[in-house]
Each structure stands twice: as C-alpha cells, then as structure tokens.
Write a structure and sequence with these properties.
CATH class of the largest domain: Mainly Beta
Number of domains: 3
Largest sheet: 8 strands, antiparallel
Distance between the termini: 74 Å
Helix content: 10-25%
Oligomer: single chain
CATH architecture of the largest domain: Distorted Sandwich
Strand content: 25-35%
C-alpha cells in the first residue's frame, strides 16, 4: 500500500513539473529574481523532469546573496531571446517566454478611462442613448479626437458604398464601408464597450457593437458576423472588436459605421477621411446643425445650417430606422415607452397590438 501511495505521489510531482515547464512559468513566483530591473524566473526543466522527487519549489528558492549573485551572473553575459507569449487574466498584460526558460511580464498601454464615462446615460441593453434633452446639447463643441495618450484607427480600410443621407425615404445615419464577411473591424478610438448585442435584439443593425469613447463620442459597428467584446470592456484604438458580415437588415456584406454625440448621429465623414485612412483634423468642431441627416460633409456651414433648420424628428433610428426591445420580467408597455422616449400608443401601432395586451418575457417589440 505504501509503495502504491509513493508511486501516485511521484506521478503527481512529475506531471506538475511538466505542466509548469510548458505553460506554468508565471506560476513560479517564489523563484523570481531580478536582472536589469526585469523579473525573470529560472526553471531547471531537465532536472525537474528527470528527478521529480528531488526537485521542489523550496529547492530553487534563493537562500542568500551569494546564490543570487551567481544566478544573476549566469544571465549577465547573454540576452535571452523571446519565443512565445502567454495571455493573463488582464488583456493588457502578457507573459513573454524566453529560450533560456525565463519569463517576464510585458504591459500593453492601457487607455486612461475617466470614471464618468460609464455613468452618464449609460445603458448596456439599449442601443441608443435616451433621456437627453435637445436643449442640453451645445450649439458648438470642440472635441479633441487624439492626443499624446489616445490615438485613432479607421474601423476598416474599405470603400464607402453608402453615405450619410436619406435613402429610400429612410434616414441612413452612418456610412457603409465595403468589406468581405470575416474581415477585421477595429475600434476607432479608446473607450468602453456600452453595447454588444446579437441580431435578435438589435433589429436592423444585426450583430452590433457600440463603444463610448474618452472624447465623448460613441461609435457604432453594425452587421457584424461576430463580435469579440462584451459590455464594460475597455478597448484601445485599433483593437480588433469583431468581424464584418451581413447580419440584420443588409443587402450584402458591409460595415455600417455611425458616429454619435449624446445619442445624436452626424456624418462620420466629417471626422474621417476614409479614402486616405486618416483623421481630417485632431480637433473636431461639432455643430448642432450637423445632427440633421440632410447635413453632410462637403457642405458649407451656411448650406448645412439651411438644411437643418429644425431639430431632427427621430435621431434614434439606425441604418433602417427600426429599434427593437426584448421584454424582461417586470416590464410594462408604459415602462418600455418611457425608457425609449416614446409612447404606448406608438409602440402598439408599430407592433399591431392593443395597450391591454399581456407581455411575454422574451417577446420582441419594435419601439421605434
């Protein structure tokens, strides 16, 4: 019986040594030492594999300054070559593995996100910002798009196939960028994901991601075949957030891309030169009359103001103007209407139902 128990212990120690050798370098923190201000861990993989009963964490711990100096001298004459990386629980921190059985942490610059970014008008289950009074939106606002800390990225380097305009008597409140299904889609600026929603909940947008950025803007990425982020994720400009597709109301693969401020859409081409793949300027002056779908890039200020002589009637529509909501426990028509800035009668009209209808959990209602 003792022999069997000893054999089991040996097998466990052996498997542990091998697992630490292959993927567990970062777990061996007790064996850490410093070379040139970088944390390394040395693992004698051959000794651990051949002598599992004699090798343990405690054997490798540095006992005194002499041992530490000997180990530092061992690495002083050569620079280890990185050959692989490992993910950690923090996507902004990686583990680099070197060819001499050492490792080091590598920190990717994490965007500085103000706390207020995810508090004002923040809702992860509704695509469009609600509750904003038109009077609270300034007539003119200078928006710093990039600086020494925060950069930018064109969401996809494709041609513009449809612009910000009325299309078949419906407002198209973004631009369509040509792509193939599966093409990469990137975050335009640093920010936090507010919405990552599947087709069954988003209506015409299909699989959609909405990101709120540190500059105060929100960007929308619609018709994705797949998204890779979730609400409250911090993202960096240029980070892969999904893949292009043709989900939702779409006639073919493309990216529906919107820019919004306080829920109000304006022409993305006022910010981006999609053909050149650059920003038009580092500081963007946003004017209130830009929020009308008749106002687009290329117009003079006077032409834009004339085209936008009254507030838009419905700035909450997406590529097709339709917004849907999935009924949850405790919802009533009046609660849903108030939450989406509409009326019970309008919801009833859009869905062909009566105000007295009993709602079912999971039921999909068009709210705008």
């Amino acid at each position: 019986m003792k022999r069997i128990f000893a054999l089991i212990v040996c097998l466990l120690l052996c498997s542990s040594a091998f697992s630490q050798d292959k993927v567990g370098f970062f777990k061996r923190l007790k064996e850490a030492f410093v070379v040139h201000d970088t944390i390394y861990i040395y693992v004698d993989t051959i000794a651990a594999a051949n002598n599992p009963n004699e090798y343990s964490h405690n054997d490798a711990i540095l006992d005194d300054d002499e041992d530490e100096n000997e180990r530092e001298n061992e690495f002083a004459g050569s620079i280890p070559t990185p050959f692989d990386t490992l993910d950690t629980d923090d996507k902004f921190r990686k583990v680099i593995l070197f060819d001499n059985s050492t490792w080091a942490y590598f920190n990717i610059d994490k965007p500085e996100i103000p706390d207020s970014l995810s508090t004002d008008y923040w809702d992860t289950e509704i695509i469009h910002v609600t509750g904003v009074d038109w009077k609270d939106i300034p007539d003119n606002l200078d928006i710093l798009l990039v600086d020494s800390i925060h950069g930018y990225c064109i969401p996809h380097p494709g041609p513009i196939t449809s612009t910000f305009k009325y299309r078949r008597r419906h407002p198209h409140k973004g631009v369509d960028i040509g792509l193939n299904t599966g093409d990469a889609v990137y975050a335009a600026f640093d920010g936090v994901v507010r919405v990552a929603m599947p087709t069954r909940m988003s209506g015409g947008y299909g699989n959609v991601v909405v990101i709120r950025h540190v500059n105060g803007l929100e960007t929308y990425y619609g018709h994705l075949s797949k998204y890779l982020v979730k609400p409250d994720d911090i993202v960096k400009a240029g980070e892969l957030i999904g893949y292009g597709g043709s989900t939702g109301r779409s006639s073919g693969p493309h990216l529906h891309f919107e820019t919004r401020y306080m829920g109000q859409a304006f022409d993305p081409e006022r910010i981006f030169d999609f053909q050149a793949g650059t920003l038009r300027d580092e500081i963007f002056t946003l004017k209130k009359h830009y929020f009308n779908v008749n106002s687009h890039y290329g117009m003079s200020d006077k032409q834009s103001a004339n085209a936008s002589n009254r507030p838009p009637k419905n700035q909450s529509g997406g590529g097709t103007g339709a917004v849907y909501y999935k009924v949850k426990s405790g919802d009533t028509l009046s609660k849903i209407a108030k939450r989406h800035g509409t009326t019970v009668s309008k919801i009833c009209q859009l869905n062909g139902i009566k105000a007295s209808k009993t709602l079912q959990i999971g039921q999909r209602l068009r709210v705008k």
